[in-house]
Specification:
elongated; alpha/beta; pyrroline-5-carboxylate reductase activity; Pyrroline-5-carboxylate reductase; 8 strands; binds 1,4-dihydronicotinamide adenine dinucleotide; binds (2S)-3,4-dihydro-2H-pyrrole-2-carboxylic acid
Length: about 270
């Protein structure tokens, strides 16, 4: 099966790299990229061929659209004249509904909407998959299999995709932001930056592993760290005082709203 990534930026590269690490052959992967320097860089790094959209449409069984939502229109115009009857279109674009692709591509084109995240680069993606109205169960399974090789996959109704985008699509950015802020806290306390980074990254990895493998609720895990009359509760009081929980609720709600807005920009 040949997979072509249309738009090889951050997420397109994460997909190519993740698929190669998972054992996919470079000869079964293609990408398109409008910046030639970027295309050359990727071919050097991964040995995957950069091609024109027409060639990708001709050779690939699965076309993965990974351009920014704001760049979708010209790509749809181009693809509309190129899509063959056997092509399956997978969109990773935040906010864009499958109905947009179905409306603009030849009648009956199967479309599957996916929201992945950048941990795909290290085989630890969280991808949520929603089939459009022409996608068959078999095509859905093909996409689930493909994405399972680069992380975890859930199938969800498309109506939940804007929330998913805000939560697991953008989620890694919020964890990186917290880690960045905690490294700064280490600096404030006089630790060397490299030491602060090592301490916090390992704390994050350890916490992530406990969340994933221990099966305990996050509240229990947090309570286990919070000794009576100890240090952690002082920190928690400050987090509560500064409204960190409400800030996260607002942040994720706002990201969801932006996803909805990106989709609305392409309504008829
Ligand atoms: N970065 C992330 O963490 C995630 C991004 N996404 C989605 O993936 C898509 C891409 O996001 P990023 O990779 O962050 O953006 P990006 O800007 O890094 O990548 C987009 C790439 O597409 C190329 N491009 C644009 N139009 C093109 C065309 N017509 N033909 C060929 N190449 C073209 C651009 O030159 C650029 O390299 C967006 O729709 C975004 O919503 C989804 C999940 C996570
Ligand atoms: O920021 C964005 O729009 C993309 C979608 C989810 C993560 N990054």
């Amino acid at each position: 099966m040949t997979v072509a990534v249309l738009g090889a930026g951050k997420i397109g590269e994460a997909l190519l790299s993740g698929l190669l690490d998972a054992g996919h052959d470079a000869g079964d992967l293609l990408f398109t990229e409008r910046h030639p320097e970027r295309a050359a860089e990727l071919t050097d790094r991964y040995g995957v061929a950069g091609v024109e959209v027409a060639e990708a449409a001709k050779r690939a069984d699965v076309l993965v659209v990974a351009v920014k939502p704001q760049d979708i229109e010209p790509l749809l115009d181009e693809l509309a004249g190129l899509i063959g009857p056997g092509s399956l279109v997978v969109s990773m674009c935040a906010g864009l509904p499958t109905s947009l692709f179905e409306r603009r591509l030849p009648a009956g084109t199967p479309v599957i909407r996916v929201m992945p995240n950048t941990p795909m680069l290290v085989g630890a993606a969280m991808s949520a998959v929603s089939p459009g109205k022409h996608a068959t169960d078999e095509q859905l399974q093909t996409v689930e299999r493909l994405l399972s090789s680069v992380g975890k996959v859930v199938v969800l109704p498309e109506s939940q995709q804007d929330a998913v985008t805000a939560l697991s699509g953008s989620g890694p950015a919020y964890f990186f932001y917290l880690v960045e802020a905690m490294i700064d806290a280490g600096i404030l306390l006089g630790l060397p930056r490299a030491v602060a980074q090592q301490l916090i990254v390992q704390a994050a990895v350890g916490a992530g592993t406990m969340l994933e493998e221990g099966g305990e609720h996050p509240v229990m895990l947090r309570e286990n760290v919070t000794s009576p009359g100890g240090t952690t509760i002082n920190g928690i009081r400050e987090l509560e005082k500064h409204g960190v929980r409400a800030a996260l609720l607002d942040a994720i709600e706002s990201a969801r709203d932006r996803s909805v807005e990106l989709g609305k920009a392409h309504e008829e």
